[in-house]
């Protein structure tokens, strides 16, 4: 996927091309790069124009957007006249097909053209130069004659697209996408290349390194080359010159930056400080901390971090375990900082200076080591805590209020009519049973069950019984526990009874016609059973709580509430019972996970509150049907039960002097001003924190951050550890800077977006959706404006929208946040429950996962499926992401849309029936909403299933469910896919282009 | 007298919750205890304040009761929106706002108290400024009543009138 990087105008200082025509950055997009059969299945996946192309590619009749004239010459006169261009004018206008044929012998100019970039490291601007060879299209770029630059899209000047493989799949020979810019580009490039002189012309790196001058994407803004060469601009820009008036004709959306590589972490910084903890644990929004409050206030983006303390480390990078033994954990006496790589030893090793508060501490005798000549400890190499940013300390007993409790799982299962009917009960019981072997903490694990409808049913699981005993409590106002113990039993002792119970559970209630739900009393009862031990409470809820305390009303069906000031009340817990219950549960170390299944309104906003404040999570399966959602529930429940979980932990973030954490965002409850109480925490949970400067001026050159998570670890079975206290410590350092530009340079989009998303979701709980969206927009505008002001003095910015390289995706992600489920549209666009559930989920997601959800990947698979030789795992090749625009979809293709939570398989209308038949078997003509994807007895289907499996394995935290949809199958298509095409303008929401224009207009207005 | 008492109680309950909040901020107390303590004095404070307002009305101190109305209205609004109690789950996010709110209320009550006993203070000061032979206060009953020598009534009235004149502004014509 390395190629995609090249697609962006990221690379500021590029040697100017010898030829002066550089402004015409209109790198011709790589035409039909990737059609099956269009190119040999060789190792040159993206090679654009193989000779075989023309025959395969039917003349794209519809290539042109209707109103688009061949050389839409939006190009103002400011451009120099195009260099000799011998190409037939029809190349641009006549349609891609024709033009292809006109350039029959491309291979020479494109030898192995785009391969190298594939292997190239992503996002390495510095490599631009080295990688220049791959840029097959580069030669043509400079030639991009003014007039020809345009065909791809009216008035669009696009430096890079050619390299962008994702476009290539679509472009070229596919007639169904009229007007897609890249369609017509190939001719241009070919033309020029065939003209001879250019192919040898290396430096102009089309998409890769962007020549400064080419940052002006719009033809109308074409500064003289000399000017451009003079200054290496420190930023990227988009020219949006024709802002007032017609928007469409002048801009090419495909030139806008898109995160098709997924999340690219800024790694220059990690290299600078190799002893920092890995970014999967701690990601600062900017790796340069402002030195003063005034500077911090000019940095309009959030100053903060996203912390994922237990993130899963890949093989070989596990966090090392350190045991200080008898000397106890070494910490600073004053600020309680843990020993870390950044402390300094003085006084020939007898003292150490705390890096956070500069306090001089004694080194305990057992820990003493001599220093070498450079002041390093001799035993440095044997001490992971002195060389690595992330370590686990084994904590002595005084670090815990009480000895580690056995891991406790308590299940609260709704057995009302709808639960049995939907099959939820059966799937849940089976899954729990199958996970019994893998529950953490064997042999101490405790387990218990309560089921409820209009009454509560307790189960005596005493090990001496052969069958569980059921006790029914029907007094909901005054809950009592019918049995003092044996409701919560040791799993290994009562294994048989538990299994008997789980086997019998679905049968026991299969004829239940009770539709009531005494949810509140059930939670209370579970609380009473669990409050000695704490643990995890899993609630399976199928309908709106209707009885007892915490009963909820149907709300949200009054459309008049929307758009008023009261709108937000629908998104917060209705009854105070829930907040109170959540607070009590946290106090007693009970983490609640809510599984909701109803197709009707369940008030997730209220139920989710329980999960939010107990460090839990909400799983929502609207309209659960075991045949459709069964797999998803099975996987996610199994994951929830078996992943490594830390119970009753607390998280504290210590910052260097002068900085403090001002607010925290995520699913947890604050126990004191800076201590997060996490009754349960696991690798799939991340927390955002905002930082504030306490002092007006920071005098130290660097600032340290230390995240410490204290948790008793209950290993999975086989290690048979019976609860060990551990402290996971992540330490990071960041330089303090006085320069705003540096802050922008070191910004981390992923982290910023993560914080923004959480802020926006929190805002929806106290304001209208509109306000929350506007707030995001305003924040981005402010940041860009500040950045503009920073540069407007030295540079002629004209009407360009400028942004730092590091934040090039920020506007798009901002748009994606506004279009995400919790925030998008109006009342009709998503049900209240969906919004709330998505909101709760997003509050806990780690950065990468969140970015994927915000800007999901879309890739085309039909070509890959047809390719015979694809036995080896060339997944990288397949999973090339495309822009999320309707233009990316070809009606003859099969696409997968993957946002990490579901996989939507989109069948083009003109997809060859063979493929559909192969994949779907006999059902291929049926309505796809009723069809589930199953492996068929043929290679293609197996291949696809393998791909899907791979995708799922990449990220086990959720199980993306496969949904099939056929083009034109409304409204399902719109709902599943079209609505999520972020770049497009869909029913009232803003498209990417408009969004950029809005931003730009606002940036300029008050500049 | 009762006015002073109720003001004092309101003051006390406000300061109590302020102390709880400050303790919470510095981690001397956990949020559960803090919230329950604060919540236990919220309603008493509201009631006392309402009573105070009614007292002013009954004793026909129109100005003072007017002064109390906005406060009463604010409290009423909070109560009717069910936002008068602090929320233990969000207490840290709302800490600053809760503190500010209570500080303002405290200042308000203190102003109230001061105005209530202002005239008394004025007279007492006058008394104290005189040579000891001429002091006229016999006994201070409470914050609004005192016994004085019979002959000074006129003097006190004129002093008050003079003070009022000094402190009122007439538009020059």
UniProtKB/TrEMBL annotation, chain A:
Domain Zinc finger Sec23/Sec24-type: from-to ranges: 329-367
Region of interest: Disordered: 1-230, 243-263
Tagged with keyword Transport: yes
Annotated family: Belongs to the SEC23/SEC24 family. SEC24 subfamily.
Biased composition (Polar residues): 181-197, 212-229
Pfam families the UniProt entry points to: Gelsolin, Sec23_BS, Sec23_helical, Sec23_trunk, zf-Sec23_Sec24
GO terms under biological process: COPII-coated vesicle cargo loading; intracellular protein transport
GO CC annotation: COPII vesicle coat; endoplasmic reticulum exit site
Occurrences of domain Sec23/Sec24 helical (ranges): 748-851
SUPFAM superfamilies: beta-sandwich domain of Sec23/24, C-terminal, gelsolin-like domain of Sec23/24, Helical domain of Sec23/24, vWA-like, Zn-finger domain of Sec23/24
Keywords: Protein transport, Transport
Signal peptide annotation: none
Domain Sec23/Sec24 beta-sandwich per the UniProt entry, residue ranges: 646-736
CDD domains noted in UniProt: Sec24-like
Protein known as: Protein transport protein Sec24-like At3g07100
Record flagged with keyword Nucleotidyltransferase: no
GO molecular function annotations of the record: SNARE binding; zinc ion binding
Domain called Sec23/Sec24 trunk: residue spans: 404-640
Compositionally biased intervals (Gly residues): 87-99
All copies of domain Gelsolin-like, residue ranges: 883-948
Pro residues composition bias: residue spans: 12-31, 51-61, 151-164
InterPro entries per the UniProt record, alphabetical: ADF-H/Gelsolin-like_dom_sf (IPR029006), Beta-sandwich_Sec23_24 (IPR012990), Gelsolin-like_dom (IPR007123), Gelsolin-like_dom_sf (IPR036180), Sec23/24_helical_dom (IPR006900), Sec23/24_helical_dom_sf (IPR036175), Sec23/24_trunk_dom (IPR006896), SEC23_SEC24_subfamily (IPR050550)
Automatic annotation (TrEMBL), chain B:
One GO term (biological process): vesicle-mediated transport
Origin species: Brassica campestris
Cell compartment(s), UniProt: Membrane; Nucleus
Gene3D superfamilies per UniProt: TFB5-like (3.30.70.1220)
Gene Ontology cellular component annotations, sorted alphabetically: membrane; transcription factor TFIIH core complex
Membrane topology qualifier: Multi-pass membrane protein
Name of the protein in question: General transcription and DNA repair factor IIH subunit TFB5
MF terms in GO: signaling receptor binding
General function of this protein: In NER, TFIIH acts by opening DNA around the lesion to allow the excision of the damaged oligonucleotide and its replacement by a new DNA fragment. In transcription, TFIIH has an essential role in transcription initiation. When the pre-initiation complex (PIC) has been established, TFIIH is required for promoter opening and promoter escape.
Record keywords, A-Z: DNA damage, DNA repair, Membrane, Nucleus, Transcription, Transcription regulation, Transmembrane, Transmembrane helix
Keyword ATP-binding in record: no
Top-rank lineage group of the source organism: Eukaryota
Bilayer-spanning residue ranges: 46-74, 106-124
Quaternary structure annotation from Swiss-Prot or TrEMBL: Component of the 7-subunit TFIIH core complex.
The family this protein is said to belong to: Belongs to the TFB5 family.
Pfam families, A to Z: Cornichon (PF03311), Tfb5 (PF06331)
């Amino acid at each position: 996927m390395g190629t995609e990087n090249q697609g962006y105008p990221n690379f500021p200082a590029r040697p100017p091309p010898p030829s002066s025509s550089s402004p015409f950055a209109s790198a011709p997009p790589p035409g039909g790069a990737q059609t099956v059969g269009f190119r040999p299945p060789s190792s040159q996946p993206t090679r654009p124009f193989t000779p075989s192309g023309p025959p395969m590619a039917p003349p794209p009749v519809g290539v042109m957007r209707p109103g688009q004239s061949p050389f839409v010459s939006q190009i103002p006169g400011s451009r120099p006249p195009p260099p000799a261009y011998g190409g037939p004018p029809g190349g641009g206008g006549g349609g891609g097909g024709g033009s292809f044929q006109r350039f029959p012998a491309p291979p020479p100019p494109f030898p192995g053209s785009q391969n190298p970039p594939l292997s190239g490291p992503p996002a390495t601007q510095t490599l631009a130069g080295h990688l220049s060879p791959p840029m097959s299209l580069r030669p043509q770029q400079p030639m991009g004659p003014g007039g020809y630059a345009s065909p791809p899209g009216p008035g669009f000047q696009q430096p890079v697209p050619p390299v962008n493989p994702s476009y290539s799949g679509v472009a070229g020979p596919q007639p169904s996408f009229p007007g897609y810019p890249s369609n017509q580009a190939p001719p241009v490039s070919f033309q020029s290349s065939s003209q001879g002189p250019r192919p040898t012309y290396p430096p102009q790196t089309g998409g890769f390194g962007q020549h400064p001058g080419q940052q002006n994407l719009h033809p109308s803004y074409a500064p003289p080359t000399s000017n451009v060469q003079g200054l290496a601009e420190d930023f990227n820009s988009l020219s949006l010159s024709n802002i007032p008036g017609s928007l469409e004709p002048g801009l090419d959306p495909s030139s806008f930056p898109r995160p098709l590589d997924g999340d690219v972490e800024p790694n220059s910084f990690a290299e600078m400080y190799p002893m920092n903890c890995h970014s999967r644990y701690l990601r600062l929004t900017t790796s340069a901390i402002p030195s003063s409050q005034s500077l911090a206030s000019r940095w309009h983006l959030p100053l903060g971090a996203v912390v994922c303390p237990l993130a899963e480390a890949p093989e070989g990078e596990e966090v090392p375990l350190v045991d200080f033994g008898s000397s106890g954990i070494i910490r600073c006496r004053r600020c309680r900082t843990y020993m870390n790589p950044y402390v300094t030893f003085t006084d020939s090793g007898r003292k150490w200076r705390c890096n956070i508060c500069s306090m001089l501490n004694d080194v305990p005798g057992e820990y003493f080591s001599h220093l070498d000549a450079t002041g390093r400890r001799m035993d440095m190499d044997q001490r992971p805590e002195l060389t690595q940013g992330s370590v686990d300390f084994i904590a002595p007993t005084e670090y815990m209020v009480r000895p580690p409790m056995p891991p406790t799982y308590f299940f609260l299962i709704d057995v009302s009519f709808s639960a049995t009917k939907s099959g939820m009960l059966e799937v849940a019981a089976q899954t729990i049973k199958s996970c019994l072997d893998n529950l953490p903490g064997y042999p101490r694990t405790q387990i218990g069950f309560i089921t409820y409808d209009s009454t509560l049913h307790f189960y005596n699981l005493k090990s001496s019984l052969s069958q569980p005993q059921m006790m029914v409590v029907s007094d909901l106002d005054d809950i009592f526990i019918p049995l003092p113990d044996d409701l919560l039993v040791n799993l290994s002792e009562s294994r048989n009874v538990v299994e008997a119970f789980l086997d019998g559970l679905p049968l026991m209630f299969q004829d239940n016609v009770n539709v009531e739900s005494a949810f509140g009393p059930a939670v209370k009862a579970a609380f009473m059973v669990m409050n000695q031990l704490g643990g995890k409470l899993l609630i399976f809820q199928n309908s709106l709580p209707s009885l007892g305390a915490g009963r909820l009303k149907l709300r949200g069906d009054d459309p008049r509430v929307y758009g008023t000031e009261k709108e937000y009340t629908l998104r917060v817990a209705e009854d105070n019972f829930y907040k109170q219950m959540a607070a009590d549960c946290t106090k007693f170390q009970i983490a609640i996970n809510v599984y909701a299944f109803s197709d009707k309104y369940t008030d997730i906003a209220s139920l989710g509150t329980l999960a939010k404040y107990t460090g839990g999570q909400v799983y929502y399966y609207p309209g659960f049907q075991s045949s459709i959602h069964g797999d998803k529930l099975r996987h996610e429940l199994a994951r929830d039960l078996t992943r490594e979980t830390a119970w009753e932990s607390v998280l504290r973030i210590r910052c260097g002097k002068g900085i403090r954490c001002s607010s925290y965002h995520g699913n947890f409850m604050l126990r004191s001003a800076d201590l997060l109480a996490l009754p349960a925490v696991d690798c799939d949970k991340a927390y955002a924190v905002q930082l504030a400067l306490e002092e007006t001026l920071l005098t130290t050159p660097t600032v340290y951050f230390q995240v410490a998570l204290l948790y008793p670890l209950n290993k999975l079975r086989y290690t048979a550890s019976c609860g060990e206290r551990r402290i996971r410590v992540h330490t990071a350092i960041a330089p303090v800077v006085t320069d705003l530009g540096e802050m922008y340079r070191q910004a981390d989009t992923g982290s910023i977006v993560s914080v923004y998303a959480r802020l926006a979701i929190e805002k929806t709980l106290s304001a209208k959706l509109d306000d929350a969206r506007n707030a995001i927009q305003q924040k981005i505008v402010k940041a860009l404006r500040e950045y503009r002001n920073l540069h407007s003095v030295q540079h002629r910015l004209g009407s360009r929208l400028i942004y730092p390289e590091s934040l090039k995706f920020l506007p798009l992600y901002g748009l994606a946040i506004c279009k995400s489920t919790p925030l998008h549209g109006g009342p009709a666009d998503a049900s209240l429950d969906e919004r709330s559930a998505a909101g709760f989920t997003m509050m806990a997601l780690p950065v990468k996962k969140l970015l994927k959800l915000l800007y999901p990947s879309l890739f085309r698979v039909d070509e890959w499926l047809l390719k015979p030789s694809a036995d080896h795992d060339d997944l990288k090749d397949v999973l090339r992401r495309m822009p999320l625009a309707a233009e990316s979809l070809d009606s003859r293709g099969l696409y997968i849309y993957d946002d990490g939570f579901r996989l939507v398989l989109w069948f083009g209308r003109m997809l060859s029936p063979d493929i559909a038949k192969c994949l779907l078997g006999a059902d291929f003509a049926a309505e796809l909403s009723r069809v589930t994807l199953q492996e068929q007895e043929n290679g293609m289907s197996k291949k696809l299933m393998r791909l899907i499996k791979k995708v799922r394995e990449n990220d086990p935290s959720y199980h993306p469910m496969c949904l099939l949809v056929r083009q034109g199958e409304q409204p399902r298509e719109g709902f599943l896919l079209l609505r999520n095409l972020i770049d497009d303008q869909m029913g009232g929401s803003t498209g990417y282009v408009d969004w950029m224009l809005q931003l730009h207009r606002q940036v300029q207005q008050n500049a | 007298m009762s006015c002073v008492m109720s003001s004092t109680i309101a003051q006390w309950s406000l300061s109590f919750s302020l102390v709880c909040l400050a303790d919470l901020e510095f981690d001397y107390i956990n949020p559960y205890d803090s919230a329950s303590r604060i919540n236990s004095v919220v309603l008493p404070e509201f009631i006392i304040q309402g009573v105070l307002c009614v007292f002013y009305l009954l004793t026909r101190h129109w100005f003072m009761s007017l002064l109390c109305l906005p406060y009463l209205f604010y409290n009423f609004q909070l109560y009717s929106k069910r936002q008068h109690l602090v929320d233990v789950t969000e207490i840290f996010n709302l800490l600053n706002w809760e503190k500010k709110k209570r500080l303002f209320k405290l200042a308000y009550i203190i102003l109230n108290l001061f105005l209530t006993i202002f005239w008394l203070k004025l007279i007492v000061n006058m008394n104290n400024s005189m040579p000891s032979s001429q002091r006229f206060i016999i006994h201070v009953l409470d914050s609004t009543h005192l016994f004085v020598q019979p002959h000074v009534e006129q003097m006190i009235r004129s002093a008050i009138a003079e003070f009022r004149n000094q402190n009122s502004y007439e538009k020059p014509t």
